[in-house]
Amino acid sequence: MERQPEGVVRTPGATVNEAQRLLDAGKPFHAHEVFEDAWKSGPEEERALWRGMAQLAVGLTHAARGNTRGGARLLLRGAGSIEAYGTGPHSLDVPGLAAWARELAERVDAGGKPVDAAASAPRLRGASRG
Q1: Alpha helix ranges (H) inside the chain
Q2: Dihedrals φ, ψ of 64, to 5°?
Q3: Which of 50, 60, 70 has its CA nearest to residue 120?
Q4: Residues 81-121: tens digit of each pLDDT
């Protein structure tokens, strides 16, 4: 599968929209790359937010590829990183995303089976699913 172009500078809204599109398509690693661009090009005070979002996406990637323990660890690390942002800038549902990550981490760690990336993808701006 072709990678996302690297180093693309997007507005925060465009970052969230593009990442959601990729998550919905079952491409969490590609969403991770979008968040990584935001983390590297965004303002210093938001870098931990975007890095945490990238960790959530790559955690889902690992969980979908069968590395459930590694996926669970990354999901929990990402949840911890984004929680410092309260209710969430840029319309991100930070509390919902942290809850989604913790629930998915528990499920994949306990079950040890890969998940369907698209079916387990979170809603970045609202209630999560999966």
Answers
A1: 12-24, 28-41, 47-65, 68-82, 94-111, 117-120
A2: -75, -30
A3: 60
A4: 999 999 889 999 999 999 999 999 999 999 889 999 999 99
